[in-house]
Amino acid sequence: MLKIFNEKINFAMETIYEAGELIRKRLKNRMEITVKTDFNDLVTNVDKETEKFLVEKINNKYPLDTFITEENTVATNFGDKCWIIDPIDGTFNFIYEKKNFAISAAYYESNTPVFGIVYDVSDDNMYLGIKGGGAFLNGKKIIPSSPRTLENSIIDVNLKRKNIIEKLIGLNIEKLCLHSLEHRHLGSAALRLCHLAVNRIHIYISVNLALWDYAAGGIILRECGGDYHVEKFINHKSPSSNTILIAAQNNKLLEEVLNFCTNK
Q1: What CATH topology corresponds to 150-258?
Q2: Domain coordinates of the chain in residue numbers?
Q3: pLDDT tens track, the chain, 264 positions
Q4: What is the pTM of this model?
Q5: What proportions of the chain, in percent to the nearest 5, are helix, strand and coil?
């Protein structure tokens, strides 16, 4: 698979890096910020500009390919050759911290993941996962770390979401954290899935995610021996963001976390 898609992978990485350069330039300018569904769900002019840039470049090179994108700058169509794009994952961080955000792009054929790219723009780190071909950070293959158990794991979870998580799947976050080493919260699903792959954290739990949030990072994680579980529920406010995602550095650790859920 790696040889077949080499050209497309190289093109995607080059294009995403160009988009990152545009974002870095835009950081020096004043942003236009718009509320989408609520004050926790924001979008900037840079999100939209970045998505348009990516879609246009890909469309010019591969005119028959289709897209699923967060900002809906192009018609949504999960076709046989589909790009799933989040132009800026971690928009809150982008606005307030100017770091800890990423460009996320996954490529699927016939509804099957082929490769995923997550570009940490502020740290200039490019993560690549190729299904069946491994995962890479800045061109260097990621070697899976020794498996962790819950008691020596760092969890990323937003404690503001603990009540909805417990209501939906019966997972007591406070109890889970007490059995772990420590907990943190970053605010970017794409980056945190990559951080699982490189052993910076070991468990990631998030609510209200859409496919573009985890499609690319999920490929990278699974190529490093990790895995994730997605639980669907109804979200009338934002129908595209209707999942709880639980991810872990290894399969046994994921099972250990899922065992804390009483109604998954």
Answers
A1: D-Maltodextrin-Binding Protein; domain 2 (3.40.190)
A2: 6-141, 150-258
A3: 556 689 999 999 999 999 999 999 998 888 887 877 666 667 789 999 999 999 999 999 999 999 999 988 888 889 999 999 999 999 999 989 999 999 999 999 999 999 999 999 999 999 999 999 999 999 999 999 999 999 999 999 999 999 989 988 999 999 999 999 999 999 999 999 999 999 999 999 999 899 999 999 999 999 999 999 999 887 665 555 578 999 999 999 999 999 999 876
A4: 0.93
A5: 35, 30, 35
